[in-house]
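Q: For a teaching session next week I want to show students how multiple molecules come together into a single three-dimensional assembly. I've collected the sequence lines for a complex. Could you give me the predicted structure tokens for the whole thing so I can convert them for display?
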Amino acid sequence: EAQVTQNPRYLITVTGKKLTVTCSQNMNHEYMSWYRQDPGLGLRQIYYSMNVEVTDKGDVPEGYKVSRKEKRNFPLILESPSPNQTSLYFCASRSIEQGEEKLFFGSGTQLSVL
Amino acid sequence: AQKITQTQPGMFVQEKEAVTLDCTYDTSDPSYGLFWYKQPSSGEMIFLIYQGSYDQQNATEGRYSLNFQKARKSANLVISASQLGDSAMYFCAMRLISSGSARQLTFGSGTQLTVLP
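A: Of course. Below is the structure for the complete assembly, covering every listed component.
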């Protein structure tokens, strides 16, 4: 089954404690991205990756890191989380078929930073 | 920079009726794609429909259609014959396609649709 898998689904942590949210896709997509969703703001892009070893900043990259060592994996790293990073996070990968684009989203990670 | 505006924070519709969710966008780039996503209460994001800026016809996918009015810069989602399972948050999004563009997807703030029995 084609899917984007994010882990964990829920995470509660404390300020300053490094964490990683994993993201894996089994569709051989080149493009992957991370978003955060906050009430009233919709989804905002954190980072995206056009291919292996190619990453770039989105709209709200501060406080986040990513890596793309393999095509299928695109982890999101918070080196020193702060309470303003409490949010719902989504990983996504993209396909383009016959001129039609489609984003496949993971099921989301609800992060709370105390 | 591109911008997406969804002016309806919440909408109600009676089951089996049609509903239109508004979306306007702002970009000076001629080449872009428009998307609609559904987010049920379970949280996952579900792709609904895509419209390219050069597509001659409005996109349709089952009960979903996109009313694309390029001159007005609007891309409204029409859901026909609403079902209780359509109750969800709906997001409009846009991505620039031309070379040299930032390639990021910009989302609106969403519309919470509630279908009444």
